[in-house]
Here is the input.
Amino acid sequence: MNTRTVIRGGLVITASDEIHADVLIEDGRIAALATSGTPAAEAWTAERVIDATGKYVIPGGVDAHTHMELPFGGTFASDTFETGTRAAAWGGTTTIVDFAVQSVGHSLREGLDTWHAKAEGNCAIDYAFHMIVSDVNEETLKEMDLLVEEGVTSFKQFMAYPGVFYSDDGKILRAMQRSAENGGLIMMHAENGIAIDVLVQQALARGETDPRYHGEVRKALLEAEATHRAIKLAQVAGAPLYVVHVSAMEAVAELARARDEGLPVFGETCPQYLFLSTDNLAEPDFEGSKYVCSTPLRPKEHQAHLWKGLRTNDLQVVSTDHCPFCFVGQKELGRGDFSKIPNGLPGVENRMDLLHQAVVDGHISRRRWIEIACATPARMFGMYPKKGTIAPGADADVVIYDPHAEQVMSAETHHMNVDYSAYEGKRTTGRVETVLSRGDVVINEREYTGRAGHGVYTPRSTCQYLT
Here is the structure.
């Protein structure tokens, strides 16, 4: 049951404002804000009063790219919807958008129903779904219309992974044409998978089997080429495009060029590309396998271009692409053959803290932190202002954030169901203290008080940048 709550004395930060204000919460929603210390604020009474003096009061994070329980490479992502959403809450994220998967030969509806069954009753925070489209045909295209109507308004396609998720240019074009009609948003994994597979086989034939070769064969130019091709196909279709997990400076340049032309093209990057590099992939004793993901980590010089893209708004969103596999028993499947290492990193718990560290380091402003982690993903995927901001009428998804607390990231202390941290030993400034999800306290002064089943499914409207 929700109680009436007042959060007093904090610095409320949204994408547009910073104000010292008290926040009144009623019935799971933000009821009002009032400047701290004023008669209006002082008059509020509540069963629960949270003292946020010296702290930030920020919207709960919206992670628009997660893969809980994803089947991949003969195994499954190690976080369930229960463990993954609990870890998200610990990290100040209060909404995830996960990917339901259409298998080849099956309908979109079957895939969506399967993911609903995985998530329902298990989530600690609110959730929504994108739909991975693996098999474009007449029935699939009709189903896309139906899904948009019921609040699944984004569809992911892959130019990578031939034989698994891959779509050729014709199938991509047909799906884009349909989304241009029904208001959906195509999300693209932009890598030239056909060419990459040739390079993989050539590398293995040369005996190049270590994890670092995963990065070397998945060339930045092949990400840029696919990004360019996706943009041109979207242009032909008259459709918007959202490119996921952008990692290479050459791909950022393609997005910037398209946006300069006024095209409705959007880009997402992830913390791993901002904070990690090919140096991690090259770690000895197979440790590099922990960092195998696709798109791959790039040499460090790419990071400056990604940060610049976030500042210039050529990149709009930072999501995690959270897809964890344990080192023992899962990443190890690729010993002797890097192409068999399950692709994915854990990160849903780390994103808000890493991006706050970027504020501390001077890469972005506080408001831009909230914009790329909360407000823009909510707008991009049709959930704003219900999610992504602190304003009257919004869901009371609120984080009390201590900007001065210091922490060391470690698998010893994280809550993701994975046996390593991609950021092991990294010192960061800033930490989540208390988290409310729709007015219920799920993290209370660094103690988990939430429960599986509190999180509810959230249907979405269409992309709010296109209306």
Remarks:
- The radius of gyration is 21 Å.
- The chain has a mean pLDDT of 97.
- Residues 4 and 366 are 28 Å apart (CA to CA).
